[in-house]
Amino acid sequence: MQFGRRCDVAYEIEGRLLEVCTCSVLCPCWVGEDPDNKTCDTVIAWGIEKGSIEGVSVDGLTMAVSAHIPKNILIPKSWKAVVFVDERATEEQEGVLLKLFTGQLGGAIADLAGLIGEVVAVERAPIAFTVEGGKGRLTIGTRVEAEMAPFIGATGNPTTLAETVFSTIPGSPVYASKASRYARDGSGHGIPSVDLEGHNALQGHFRFAA
User: What's the pTM?
Assistant: First the structure.
């Protein structure tokens, strides 16, 4: 049976994650500690390589969340967020993506959605999401621009974090990275703008199903 065409699950998607935030390297939020600056401003993007949601293919699309986190990242309904939908999505694809990423279909994504207290906007945008040679690049229209690369350990392999109390890709290790550039325009959304170099970033692979 082909991936993404199963009828016994509500959704099954897999792909890559790119994430940047205003914390220093390494981000304390992933081990449940308070953000370095007491608050955290992050952008998280899931590039879906293949998958389906309620029978609708979402291959090649990207979803992203740009959020202000006022205190500890694990406080339920505390995030203030903007949700970005890949502008290439059809109306049907947009509908199922929003249903999934707002937690309506359960699973690990619902746990993450439960941290968001206010969605200030849902916008369609051109999203460029690439990972080449371990280096990630993310742009969301004129709102977000980020470039990052993972740390490399003594063995020549990327440095990973696993079994953390918080994760945007539950069940999978994440590559600890550094963003050479992270810029975000929060104007119009009521969240802080960002313009930083050399701060925290994360990369990884995900597979969600329920």
Answer: 0.92
